[in-house]
C-alpha cells in the first residue's frame, strides 16, 4: 500500500476552483479527427449508470475520451477503470510495457522518465498496445501526474477512418490478409545490427512467441472494419511474397499516419485520456530529459481480434 501513500504525497496537480454552478455532464466531440471531451464529471467518485453508459457510448463513437482537471488516488483510478472492464494480463511469455522478469505487470503501470521510469524521454512511433499478444487490451486509461513544459505530446490515430479512406481495390486486396506483429519487447532482447526491422524478411529468425491477427480487424462492438497495423512495429504478412508484402505495408503505413487521421493531446497535469486500443494507434513526441513526465496507465483486458 506504500505506493498509494507515495502517490498522494507526491501529487502536484492543482485543480481549478469549481464555481457555484459546475459544468453539466456532457461528452462533446473535440474539434479534431477523433476524440471527445468529458465535462462535469469527477472521475474520483462513484459514477452513475447514466454516466457509465454515456462514457461507453462516447468511447465507441469517438475512440478517445479526454477528462480534464482530475485528481485520483490509486484505488479511485482502479475503480474508474473497472467500470469499463477488468485489468489486462499478458501471457507470461510475452513481455509488454511494465513486465517484470516473471512476465507479471502491475495493475497501474507508471509511464515516466524519472526514478528508473519505463519509457525515458524518447519519441514513440504510432502503435496499438499489446498488438503482439493473442488478446490485446481493449483500451487504456492514461492519467497525467507531472508533465513537461514542452514536448511529450501524445497523438491518437483513427484506424477506422484510415481503413474507410482506402480506395476500393486496396481494401479488396487487404481484406483477407493475416499479419504477424512481432513483439518489440522481445526484439530488445534479441537485437539486430540494423535495429528493429519494419518487415521481417526470410533471413531474420522469427521472434517467438508470435501471434497472427487479421490485417483488417472488425471492431467487436461497432462491427466497423479497421486497419490493424502499427506504424513501425516489425511485421510480416502470412503466406505473402516478402518484397510485395514489405511494399504493401509501407504504402498502408504512409496512408494511416496522415494528419487527417490523428488528434494530438497537449497534456496538463490532471488529464485522463481513455482510448479504444482496438480502433486507434497512439504515439508520442520526445521531450527534454531534464523535465519530469509521470503518467499512470491502466490497460483493460481485450479479446482475440477477428
Ligand atoms: O507516454 C505516452 O504518452 C504514451 C506511452 C504509451 O505508449 C502507453 O502508455 O501505452
Ligand atoms: Fe502505448
Let me know the average pLDDT.
93
Helix share, percent:
10-25%
Strand order of the largest sheet: 1-2-3-14-6-16-4
* Major pleated sheet: 7 strands, mixed
Euclidean distance between termini CA atoms: 39 Å
Strand portion: 15-25%
Any ligands, ions or cofactors bound here, and which? Answer: 2-oxoglutaric acid, fe (ii) ion
Could you write a compact summary of the structure shown?
This protein is an alpha+beta fold. 22% of the residues lie in helices and 23% in strands. The protein is globular and about 65 Å long.
Written account of the structure:
- With 306 residues, this protein is α+β, with helices and mostly antiparallel strands.
- It has two domains: 2-14 and 24-150 and 266-300, Clavaminate synthase-like (Double-stranded beta-helix, 4-Layer Sandwich), CATH 3.60.130; 159-256, Double-stranded beta-helix, CATH 3.60.130.10.
- 22% of the residues lie in helices and 23% in strands.
- The strands form four sheets. The chain has a seven-stranded mixed sheet with strand order 1-2-3-14-6-16-4, with helices on one face.
- The longest helix is centred in the last third of the chain and has 15 residues, at 242-256.
- Residues 111, 119, 124, 129, 142, 154, 282, 284, 295, 297 line the site of 2-oxoglutaric acid (AKG).
- Residues 111, 119, 124, 129, 142, 154, 282, 284, 295, 297 line the site of 2-oxoglutaric acid.
Using brief descriptors, characterize the structure shown:
306 residues, alpha+beta, Double-stranded beta-helix, 2 domains, four-stranded antiparallel sheet, disordered N terminus, binds 2-oxoglutaric acid
Amino acid at each position: 500500500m506504500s505506493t498509494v501513500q507515495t502517490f498522494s504525497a507526491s501529487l502536484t496537480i492543482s485543480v481549478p476552483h469549481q464555481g457555484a454552478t459546475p459544468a453539466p455532464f456532457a461528452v462533446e466531440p473535440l474539434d479534431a479527427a477523433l476524440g471527445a471531451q468529458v465535462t462535469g464529471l469527477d472521475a474520483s467518485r462513484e459514477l452513475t449508470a447514466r454516466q457509465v453508459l454515456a462514457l461507453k457510448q462516447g468511447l465507441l463513437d469517438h475512440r478517445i475520451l479526454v477528462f480534464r482537471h482530475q485528481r485520483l488516488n490509486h484505488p479511485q483510478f482502479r475503480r474508474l477503470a473497472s467500470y469499463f472492464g477488468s485489468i489486462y494480463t499478458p501471457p507470461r511469455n510475452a513481455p509488454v510495457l511494465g513486465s517484470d522478469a516473471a512476465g507479471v505487470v502491475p495493475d497501474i503501470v507508471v509511464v515516466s522518465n524519472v526514478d528508473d521510469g519505463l519509457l525515458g524521454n524518447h519519441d514513440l512511433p504510432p502503435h496499438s498496445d499489446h498488438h503482439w499478444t493473442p488478446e490485446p487490451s481493449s483500451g487504456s486509461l492514461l492519467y497525467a501526474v507531472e508533465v513537461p513544459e514542452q514536448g511529450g505530446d501524445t497523438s491518437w490515430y483513427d484506424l477506422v477512418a484510415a481503413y474507410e479512406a482506402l480506395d476500393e481495390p486496396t481494401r479488396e486486396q487487404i481484406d483477407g490478409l493475416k499479419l504477424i506483429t512481432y513483439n518489440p519487447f522481445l526484439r530488445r532482447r534479441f537485437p539486430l545490427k540494423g535495429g528493429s526491422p519494419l518487415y521481417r524478411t526470410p533471413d531474420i529468425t522469427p521472434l517467438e512467441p508470435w501471434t497472427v491477427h487479421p490485417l483488417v480487424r472488425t471492431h467487436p462492438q461497432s462491427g466497423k472494419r479497421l486497419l490493424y497495423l502499427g506504424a513501425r512495429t516489425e511485421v510480416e504478412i502470412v503466406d505473402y511474397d516478402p518484397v510485395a508484402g514489405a511494399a504493401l505495408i509501407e504504402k498502408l503505413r504512409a496512408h494511416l499516419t496522415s494528419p487527417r487521421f490523428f488528434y494530438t493531446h497537449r497534456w496538463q497535469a490532471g488529464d485522463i485520456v481513455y482510448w479504444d486500443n482496438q480502433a486507434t494507434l497512439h504515439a508520442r513526441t520526445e521531450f527534454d530529459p531534464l523535465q519530469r513526465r509521470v503518467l499512470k496507465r491502466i490497460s483493460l483486458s481485450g479479446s482475440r481480434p477477428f
